[in-house]
Amino acid sequence: MKRDLSVRIGSLELRNPVLVASGIIGYGREYERLVSLEEIGGIVTKTVTRHARAGNPPPRVCETPAGMLNSIGIENPGLEGFLAVKVPVLRGLPCAVIVSVEGENVPEFCELVEGVDGSGVAHAIEVNISCPNVGPHGMRYSTDAGMAREVMGAIRPLTKLPLIAKLTPNVTRIGEIAEACESCGADAVSLVNTFVGMAVDARTRKPILGTVLGGLSGPAIKPLALAKVWEVVQAVDIPVVGMGGITRPVDAVEFLLLGARAVEVGTALFADPTLAEGCVSEIDRYLEKMGSSSVDDLIGGLEVPEGRGVIRAGCAPRTVRGGRAS
Amino acid sequence: MNLVPCSVVSNREITQGNFLLTLKVPRGFSRPQPGQFVHLRITQDVEPLLRRPYSLEGFVERGKLRAARIYYSVVGRGSRLLSQHQPGAKLDVIGPLGVGFSPRPRRLPILVAGGRGVAPLLFLSRSLRDRKRPFVFLFGARSRRELYGVREIRGGRLHVATDDGSVGFEGSVLELLRQEWREGGHTPLTAEIFTCGPHGLLHEVSDFARENGIRCEASLEGPMACAVGACRGCPVPLLPGADSGRYPAMCVEGPVMDATIVDWARLP
Question: How many CA within 13 A on the CB side of residue B254?
Answer without folding.
Answer: 31
